[in-house]
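Hi F.,

I've been meaning to write this up properly since the lab meeting, where we talked about keeping a consistent format for the predictions we share between groups. The idea is simple: the sequence comes first, exactly as it goes in, then the structure tokens exactly as they come out, then a line or two of notes. No screenshots and no reformatting. I'm using this chain as the first example so we have something concrete to point to.
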Amino acid sequence: MKLCFLGDADSIHVRRWVLELVDRGHDIHLISFTDHAIPKVTLHTLPLSSERKQSGRNWRMLLALSKIRRLIAQIEPDLLHSHYLSSYGLLGRLSGFRPHVATAWGSDVLVTPKRSQIARLLLRFTISKCDKVTSDSVFMGEQLLRFGLSKEQLAIVPFGVDIELFSPSFSSTVATQDFKLLSTRTLDSNSNVEVVIRALPKVLKHYPQAQLVIAHDGDQRSRLEAVSVELGVQDSVSFLGKVPHEKLPELLKSASFFFSIPTSDATSVSLLEAMSCGLFPLVSDLPANREWIEDGVNGFILPELDEQTLGNRIVSAARDPNLIRSAKSRNRSLIEERANWRTNVGMMEEIYSQIADIGEETD
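Output, unedited:
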């Protein structure tokens, strides 16, 4: 099939989708506001008059609508697939092209609509004429139904994990010289990485060899570095910045614990990757996390996001090697059964085939 994607070319998630589909023989075009070459993918880069904000409200993207329509007309795809509802998804809807698949990512459904009535109306408008909307979690799918999406329009398709790359290491112990704690979440207010840093003194009292590795970047990095100095734990904290995705498997395999404690989130791909590699996850009490983690069985769910609770949970898990081994086995099985990347891409191909005969119906 000839598929046209709307999404960020520099996003690892968009890149994974299009690269896998190219390998499966599809002709892929990507229309993007970011310029990042992808092998065997035809990239159409759009100009943007100002830098986009990560917080949203990027109304200037709408100025590219006429060019998007012309590009789609020139490409003549069998299907349009937009990634992220409140930006590219809206543009896909306004393009008038069908069949149209749109994929929700998380904050576009769980955060942005809470900002205003206009944002909620735009979400309803965006999904109203999509032939299929995919969500990576049941919880986010339920939220989409509340915004008027029909059950027939909804499909649950986790982004998934390359289980060959993200595989467990042989070690199953944590109380060793290489006792490593890992966070790969963006350093922003939503991720609550500061809670992890503030929990570290408690851990160091019991495991002075512990090392916290923070493998991402964000607008809170300077503040978080200052917090580590303030607590006197800077020698036990490493800020690596954003790590290339191809280097993540090695990093994950070197760690014992993984933290994913955002205030708001859908299914976290980084959490799934950590589970696939055998790390013990500690997560915030969110519906999407509960779809994967059973508290005290294959990880810990934090009832409160505070350093005392987190520190106690880390020490508790480290003292229970049987729990660590059991969680490692269970999590690997969960990923193989429900989040195998190539299986999930196949699910998306089935969706494409089901709606391909809708043709070029317009609004």
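Notes:
The first helix runs from residue 12 to 23.
The domain at 2-160+340-358 is CATH 3.40.50.2000 (Rossmann fold).

If this format works for you, I'll send the rest the same way.

G.
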